[in-house]
Amino acid sequence: MISEKSKIFNEVLVDAKHALDSIGIPFHLHSGTALGAHREHDFIQHDDDIDLAVFYEDVNDKSSVDDIIKSMENNGFDLEAKLGKLNRGFELKFTHNIQAVSLDIFWVYPGRYRGKDYYILSSYYGECDNLKHKMCVWAYRPYDTVKIKFLGHTYNVLPKMTLVDAYGKDWKIPKKFNYYEGLEEGYKSLIRDYFKPVPVDNKIAFCFLLYDSVVHGKQWYDFFKQDKFPIKSYSVYSHVKTITNKTQEWIRENHIRAIKTGWCEENLVWAWINLLKQALKDPNNKYFVLLSGECIPLFGFWDTYKEITASKKSRINIDLNSEATIETGLAYADQWILLNRKHAELLVELKTTEKGKEFVKNIRKLIGDFCPDELYPVNWFMENYGKSSFASFKREFNVMPTTYTYWDGKHTSPIRYTSPRMRKDKGKICSSGALFARKFNKKAGIELSGKCDKRKSPRRLSRRSRS
């Protein structure tokens, strides 16, 4: 019995087949799609896209590429990205405009690796952004495709020999991993000596403000583990209110001297500033993220790194229509913010300069019952950059969320996601522009952490971050 997902994927594949056949472009099923055709005689149920490939010797001129794009668009696809160069590492990424299924077309090139002939293919995103030429390179023994009857149609498909190259001799045994997890350890054909270190002088400081531990500690541990380079491109700092046996070892190793803090107290601002002061001691830290102990990363490490470092601006999520703004006349913003080095140094001045101390003295009279950590930083930045106009403020800051939180308007605290609610809202969370999200129970956090796929919306996040 064919599943509903397989019906949808099959419809998308047939549309692509018609688009390519109609203009005489030979193609074959590749990667996970080829694996499913051989092993399951079906689409792999946890796979989230369709993989096709063409040989460079068959499609090597711009007019043929233009014909492919036009024919695909005429058959229900939108072009999402054109990656690499036609003579090296080319890839077209499409999305079916009815079924919203991603489909990739890879170019396969003849090449040599370690003195032997191979077919070479490239892919992008994730850890690939930090490799030579910003792409992953895959090597397969030269192959001839085989014809397979697959869900009612005949296709050219990778031979079983190539599945051994790609997935190992045990390729017939199902293993569940996504593209990013496969980059880490699942793919056998990835040329792993192609790696090169990222610049050490462009590090991100992850600053955790904690009660006693990181709630989703394993998810964060796995997130940081994706940076395999000897010289890391990140730093971790933590302010832990109470160290207990729940406090993770990697948090203990990086915690600063704690001060007494409480919910909605001014000391939360000073704890954050103390974290910044410590992180600023490393001149290679260029970005500083304030994180809650209850948040999770939405994307893989390298997508997060790329998104943060792509913009020189800081991020702050201002709500000019908030209750706090209406009652006090002050700007209100999420306390979970992302700062560049210049703005991190400026925020520290709130505590260390006479101007900053005078600002704090004055704002204390205005905030009423509202929380200082949601008012002090943003209004200090407005004091320095936004006095003339909000437009001048936006020249320094991207006004967008760093951490996604769901408020229903009925409660004074954010809603904690369960798995069913998270699955329902996953699309909204992943497309919110945020890089992190908070308030998930254990199961929901495991299911969502790192599972948002930047490849499915390659333009949305990048465009917003560069505004």
Automatic annotation (TrEMBL):
The keyword Nuclease does not apply. GO terms for molecular function: glycosyltransferase activity. Its main location: membrane. GO terms for cellular component: membrane. It is found in: Membrane. Keywords: Glycoprotein, Glycosyltransferase, Membrane, Transferase. It is a single-pass type II membrane protein. This is Uncharacterized protein. The lineage of its organism: unclassified sequences, metagenomes, organismal metagenomes.
